[in-house]
Amino acid sequence: LFDLGRTIPPAMLHAPHAAYTYLTSQVGMLRIFDGGISLYSVTGAVVTDTRAGDHHSPAERAALQAVLASSDSQISEPFNVAGDDPRIALFVPIQSGDHLAGVLEGVWRLKGDNAIVSIPHMYVGKAGYIFIADSQGRVISHPDPHRIMSNLTEPSDALPLEDLPPGHTMTAESYIVHGQPMLTTIYRPRTTGWLV
């Protein structure tokens, strides 16, 4: 998405049809961002959107406003569309020289077919797995799709996650799956504060 943002000429931010044609021609990007791609002006107005009929959530608007205020990329809080279609969005600034010209948004469907969803299918050892929760403990990616958007209950009983500072790892033994002992390691990246 960062590379795609660098290819969008600032003039395209004033040409919605040309911008839509360009974004819909980015088949590889639309596979990665299976929830769609949106282009915003420097005022936050939608220039064009590949999503049919979706309304932008409060979580998306908050992340967009953060990009407009800081010119830094942002990841939205998870949000639901039409009931049980959880998503998360990445926003990247589009620069023109040294100033912000617009913002590009790519949306991942958390129960779709994309890179975020494939993470929990990378198993560790015989029965281990990877999951991701946001900074509030809301599950974003998990091998059990029913856990997505639920509050983190594992391994919080064994690990005091609120004490885990960004950029650090914590490991402990826990008993969270059918009473079986598990060695659990949690990492909180500096960039997002999420739990991996």
Short description:
The chain is α+β, with helices and mostly antiparallel strands and 196 residues long. Helices cover 19% and strands 31% of the residues.
Describe the structure.
There is one protein chain. The chain has about 200 residues and is α+β, with helices and mostly antiparallel strands. It is about 20% helix and about 30% strand. It has 5 helices and 10 strands, in the order αααββαββββαββββ. It has helices at about 1-5, 15-25, 25-30, 60-70, 115-120, and strands at about 35-40, 45-50, 75, 80, 85-95, 100-110, 130-135, 140, 170-175, 180-190. The strands form 3 sheets. Strands 1, 2, 3, 4, 5 and 6 form a 6-stranded antiparallel β-sheet that branches. A hairpin with a 4-residue loop joins strand 1 (about 35-40) and strand 2. The chain is elongated and about 60 Å long. The two termini are about 20 Å apart. The model has no long low-confidence stretch (mean pLDDT about 80).
Secondary-structure map:
Elements: H1 2-7, H2 16-24, H3 27-32, E1 36-41, E2 46-49, H4 58-70, E3 74-75, E4 79-80, E5 86-96, E6 99-109, H5 115-118, E7 132-133, E8 139-141, E9 168-177, E10 180-188
Antiparallel strand pairs: 1-2, 1-6, 3-5, 4-5, 5-6, 7-8, 9-10
